[in-house]
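Hey,
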Amino acid sequence: MRHLSSDRETLYHHPVYWVETFVDSGRFKGTCYRAANWIFLGKTTGRGKLDRTRKPNRSIKDIYGYPALKAKIAALSTDSTNSSKPPSSDGPQVSRPKKKKSSRSKGGQKGHKGHKRELLPADKMDNIVDYYPCACANCSAEMDPENCPETSEPARYQTFELPKTRPIATEHRCHELGCEVCGHRTRAELPATVAQSQFRARVHGAVAYLTSVHKIGRRGIVEIMNTLFGLDLCLGNVCNCIDRVSPELEAPAEEARQSLAGAVNLNIDETGWKCKGDRRYLWVFVSHLAVYFTIAASRGAKVLRSVLGQTFQGVITSDDHSAYSCYHKNGLRQLCWAHLIRKFKGLKETRSSPDAYKFSKYMLREVGHILGCWHAFLEGYISRRQLLDATVFRAALIGRWPPEQSARFAIGLTCLPSSVMRV
């Protein structure tokens, strides 16, 4: 079967897309075909090709089918909406649902609480400029603030401006003195904190902040420092600043890592990462208190053990990568809803078998109900108790699916009831 399609294409210049076979159910059970992932399609009627009586006149056989070009068919029928492919790999034929046009008008909605800048007290202002009317708006008579009484408090309007910035340039002079006793000349040495870099702590902090928080590239930082602050830096200066700041952040980074072990819910993901041409993996751990990144050479469970310890007591939310199942065997897991929905859609749209189509359609409907309850809870329409009751009911409906078919199309839904309750 592995070479059937390619061999036929070599000989007859046309591939084999689908293969069918018959199994006499009275003599054989077709176990080898089922084990090889052949799809049971049904049974024959027991009538021959030239039958004229329309009555069974031979043994009834089971019909099995197998997609000979399964990988190619799956590649043609999957995209970013029903698989883990990135959106950049989609062709022009992929259509995405357009967002429905809202019936609301632009801008703030009726009943929306407005936000405005509060006026600062007068002692917080750097400058105060007073304006007085020159003439009466009624009779056009001249008005002098020294003679005319002020009838109310002035209307206050405050403006703000960025200060003119220039680097604080400091020259450090190391003087040389001659000894009155022996005549030897000795020059003073620079302090270690001054000698290690021409740029002081605030420059290092600004470079680290722009790099880590705002994800600005090295060249962008050079331009920002030169344009906004008048500080002439080169790419090497920026890289050196980052290298000096990184060791100082090891202690708070370690504190953030240790806090992950006590988290109730933890979102984890990993992706490929290039480091000097070598293959690495970027891991992210997100709790309600901290976000922790680490780069590792492995994508396996040993990375989870090094970050979280040998066991984790909370709920892990992740995709269905095998490393999470290996590490968190006896714990609660919540599979990523986006990954589940994409897999169900892919299973439905590839139509690999009637059972797969019915299973995916059923699961998409139930997942839609569960997420509908979750959004209703977020918007305040139902309470948490009602959310738990509704999701337990839907989880029970999911459990009604035939176990033998659920095993064939297992995607890890056994954790749904517990994990939803802990969200």
